[in-house]
Please model this.
Amino acid sequence: MLSAAVALADEGGAGAIGAMLRVVALNAVVRQRLAVIVPSVPSGPAQADLSAVTALVGTGRLTSVIGRTHPLADAAEAVRHVERGPALGKTVLVVR
Model:
């Protein structure tokens, strides 16, 4: 799930709403369910977990493994690639 979240980082200035909309759109075409990580409260366990993951990403101890990227226009090919069977890393659709 983290690799999806990292891959969906906002590049176009749409902010968090744009990232959430991309997750909803991608859920229609991927086998795995994607989710937006949002703490339920400003402090507490959810915030601590998110901070811990952020720190691991920041230090490079946790990285995403992306096997292939496809532009949104090639979504059908991306789905065929995933359906062929196990792949090394995640297949990501790039939305620009």
